[in-house]
Amino acid sequence: LKLQFLYFIDSTKTKMMKAVLLLGLLAAAEGTFTSHWGHHGWHWWDRNRNPPSRRPTKYDFTTKTPYWSSKSLSNHEHEGPVGEGDERCEAVHLQHVGRHGSRYDDNDDVKDLEELLASKGSAIKNPRYAFLKSWTNPFPTNVEKHLNEVGKEELYKMGARYRRKYGRDILSEDYNPIYHTFQHTWKTRTSRSASAFALSSFQEGRGQLGRDNNEPVAMFCLWNGLEDYDGDKIIRFSDNCPNYDAITDDDNFPGKVQEDIFEKKLEEEVGARVTAKLQLDTSVWKLDFDGLELLYKACMFETVVLDTPRRHSPCAVFEEKDYEMFAFLKDLGEYYEGGHGTQIAQELACPLMSKLLNGLKKYSEDDNEVQAAFMFGHSDTIQPLLAQLGLYVDPVPLTADMPWEQAMARKWRTGVISPMAANVDMVLHRCENAEGVTSWKTELLHNERRIRWPKCGADKTNVQFCSPDDLFTAYPMAGDCKFDEFCKIPQ
Measured between alpha carbons, how far apart are the two ends of the chain, in Å? Predict the structure, then answer.
């Protein structure tokens, strides 16, 4: 049975009810469908795919880009078999590092825009955009930065995909806290993301609790009770490195300098376009960068969370070039704070890298019972890890005044490499050839797609699989992580 979408209307209510009931029974028997009442009747779709109302946006919202949209922006090579020739390989161990799913905005941003439009909205003379004068906060006020409905779905569906992909090997056994571990930071959006992932990957139908036979899953976080320097050096390392804070907070930090330069360029260019489009009375409202940014953030979250049509949201004021300029501005900061722009940013993830590689190596030496370790963090977990792995290296540093064509071709594009629910997986495979000789191969995946190891192999560049021993050669800092040393502020 392959039902993906059905629209049905019958003039006879009885016939319609019978048809809907029949389809519901068929879908329930198949076990993979859900339904939604739309403007024209019932819509049916495969619940493991995106519902038709949740269309991927073509715009790059950098680290706020939804997971389902970022995958349409990226390209990955085809995944072939792990074994070569007569080798037979089996996935036996998984290390997963994931980011929380999509979240709500900061309350202050929404409140500031509401007040700005209330006080300056009269300056809008173009009747096409008169709706902005009465714009009000469309989001709940008690869920600031919490996981939203899109984020819950992102992680729930991801867990279901992992269950299908690894259900015959790594995740074939019922949940056991000895073999399957879940860790998150102290933020509720990471704990709830972990819970949504665990619900579909381990809990549903695998226990004896409730109608759905759920299985409770143990989760833990490393937290000393403090918001600053909270003690979690594994997933929340950037918040536990005083020297990193001192470097990035300095007014002369390269990231700040480059952002300031491009901010002025964006204010001038985008501000002129938006002012003309709104036909602003500049004696009442002279649009500056802060106002543009508030409009952009409202546009971003209305698109991601509410799927508001562009013409009915603050998005209506922007052109495609405007989105790209905002994206480049954000990526400039991320490049220096968590990417290849500074040395300390590339070193930050060494506690996490050490945990990952040691887990792989110990399992290959029969010294690790954990079959799957799941960790849920933030964008500043994912980006330094990608940097330390040596991925997405641009040929020249990103700068505010680089040619626009070069900026558009950048590899460090956070909407692709670190969207909401971004993830990095290291999968260990036990391989055996026809002579019975055993070998170990580690597969690297980013956002659920296989990518090549950039620093492994004989020539230390661009190989598809890497042995646990070779990984320590490729990434020596994982075996000798001096986190406390380089995080200490020099006297």
Answer: 69
